[in-house]
């Protein structure tokens, strides 16, 4: 009797996510898990995918997202599933959708998750987790709870360090989130709601991480002139808590700092010998977040991604908007707020050096609710595979896949994901190594990638033939 499977992916070339060289094999799935890998000619299955000439890889894990709300408001997760992403890490940069009582109007940058549409409505983190379980999305999610979100809840005045009572309240909220299923805490110490927080405040709020076995992820206090001090602050927080840290979207911003990844990467590498450190990076030399004058000052070019009072300017250059308004740049910024922007402020050599660093994971940092989003939202993973691995030969395809799968699962502690191995969860991406690339551009950012054939989450196809399938097999993942 031939073995019977739920799904058989025939004739492909496996890149397993471990850095091991590719090999030809069929992959069989049963009950949401990888049941067999090898020559399975005689096997039969309820469904088959012909992967002749294609790569069969573990589903990609987006190490850095702001998809907290997208999981609920567009559970097809099209911007991510279309890239081959099967798991998203949410709640980054200090910003999480929960815990936050209904009716709260949080300040920027928390409004990146919701510009007033009532999505902040989960008073406890457990309520958010329950909503995700009741209405699953197409992809899995690993959740972080944001320190800025906790500050908005616990503090009346965000412009100063938290007092003992406020720290205790935030610590209790962090503990509740971790108990409910969050895998860690994130901070966004560069942003206004958290920039007054001291290192000690962060340490005290994050205390529950050690007992709950969580990790600490950070958008650091400074990614420009004071980037080295910010790295040391991050490492100190990790050491004092005794937990792993992840440096989010590592970069060096501003013309004066171009080239300084030659300083940051050796420091990271040296500290990695003493403590657990991860880092991620998006493959572009333009950043994107809320519109602020300080970032405009160090950028060579600025695109406006959304503006509440002036939605008609989304997608235009700030200089052009100022010209049309007949105003100075500073005056135009004031009129556009609240708003988002893309800043061309990094050096391509730094981006490549950071991306090629052996321990760098791929994370999109995409902003799914922007009217004219940075193309990283739809293009990050195919761009690394196509532009950087195939086009520029920055590293072999096996390395590119590892940076978005095995390395990421290991860094975040996601058990039985990220590596294509018998018994692991069946998160699988089938793609064409010859054509895979982003289709999104700065001018036309909302475009599904090229060369992604099939994307399977927990054994079920969620993206096939260039569109979502309607399946919603995603789960909330725990840290082992
Ligand atoms: Zn950030
Ligand atoms: Cu971010």
Write structural notes for this entry:
- The chain is an alpha/beta fold and 480 residues long.
- The chain contains 17 helices and 20 strands.
- The chain has helices at residues 70-73, 78-81, 125-134, 147-154, 164-180, 192-195, 199-205, 208-212, 227-241, 261-272, 293-297, 318-325, 329-336, 348-356, 376-391, 397-403, 406-412, and strands at residues 4-14, 23-30, 33-38, 44-50, 55-58, 60-62, 85-90, 140-146, 184-188, 215-219, 245-247, 277-281, 286-290, 301-307, 339-344, 360-362, 428-431, 452-457, 460-464, 467-468.
- Strands 1, 2, 3, 4, 5, 17, 18, 19 and 20 form a 9-stranded mixed sheet that branches. An 8-stranded parallel sheet has the order 6-7-8-9-10-11-12-16, sandwiched between helices.
- Helix 10 (261-272) links the parallel strand 11 (245-247) and strand 12.
- Helix 7 runs parallel beside helix 9.
- It is globular, with a radius of gyration of 22 Å.
- The model has no long low-confidence stretch (mean pLDDT 97).
- The structure holds zinc ion and copper (II) ion.
- Zinc ion (ZN) binds next to loops.
């Amino acid at each position: 009797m031939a073995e019977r499977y739920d799904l058989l992916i025939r004739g492909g070339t496996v890149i397993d996510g471990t850095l091991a060289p590719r090999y030809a094999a069929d992959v069989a799935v049963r009950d949401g898990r990888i049941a067999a890998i090898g020559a399975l000619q005689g096997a039969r299955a309820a469904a088959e995918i012909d992967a002749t000439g294609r790569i069969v890889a573990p589903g990609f894990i987006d190490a850095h997202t702001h998809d907290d709300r997208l999981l609920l408001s567009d559970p097809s997760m099209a911007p991510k599933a279309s890239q081959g992403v099967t798991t998203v890490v949410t709640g980054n940069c200090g910003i999480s959708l929960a815990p936050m009582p209904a009716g709260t109007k949080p300040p920027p940058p928390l409004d990146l998750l919701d510009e007033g549409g009532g999505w902040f409505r989960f008073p406890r983190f457990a309520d958010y987790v329950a909503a995700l379980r009741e209405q699953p999305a197409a992809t899995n999610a690993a959740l972080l709870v944001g320190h800025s979100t906790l500050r908005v809840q616990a503090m009346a005045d965000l412009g100063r360090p938290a007092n003992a009572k406020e720290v205790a309240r935030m610590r209790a909220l962090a503990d509740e989130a971790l108990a409910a299923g969050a895998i860690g805490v994130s901070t966004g110490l560069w942003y206004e709601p958290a920039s007054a927080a001291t290192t000690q405040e962060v340490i005290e709020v994050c205390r529950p991480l050690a007992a709950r076995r969580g990790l600490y992820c950070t958008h650091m206090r400074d990614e420009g002139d004071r980037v080295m001090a910010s790295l040391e602050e991050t490492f100190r927080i990790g050491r004092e808590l005794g937990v792993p840290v992840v440096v989010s979207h590592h970069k060096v911003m501003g013309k004066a700092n171009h080239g300084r990844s030659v300083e940051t990467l050796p420091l990271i590498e040296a500290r990695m010998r003493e403590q657990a450190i991860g880092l991620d990076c998006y493959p572009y030399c333009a950043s994107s977040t809320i519109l602020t004058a300080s970032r405009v000052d160090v950028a060579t070019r600025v695109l406006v991604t959304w503006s509440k009072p002036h939605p008609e300017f989304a997608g235009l250059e700030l200089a052009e908007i100022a010209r049309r308004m007949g105003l100075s740049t500073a005056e135009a910024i004031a009129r556009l707020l609240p708003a988002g922007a893309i800043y061309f402020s990094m050096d391509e050599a730094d981006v490549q050096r950071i991306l090629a660093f052996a321990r760098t994971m791929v994370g999109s940092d995409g902003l799914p609710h922007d009217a004219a989003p940075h193309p990283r939202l739809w293009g990050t993973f195919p761009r690394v595979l196509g532009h950087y691995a195939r086009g520029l030969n920055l590293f072999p395809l096996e390395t590119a896949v590892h940076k978005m799968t095995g390395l990421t699962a290991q860094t975040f502690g996601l058990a039985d994901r990220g590596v294509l191995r018998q018994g692991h969860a069946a998160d699988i991406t089938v793609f064409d190594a010859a054509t895979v690339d982003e289709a999104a551009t700065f001018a036309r950012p909302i475009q599904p990638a090229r060369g992604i054939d099939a994307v399977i989450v927990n054994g079920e196809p969620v993206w096939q033939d260039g569109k979502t399938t309607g399946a919603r097999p995603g789960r909330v993942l725990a840290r082992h």
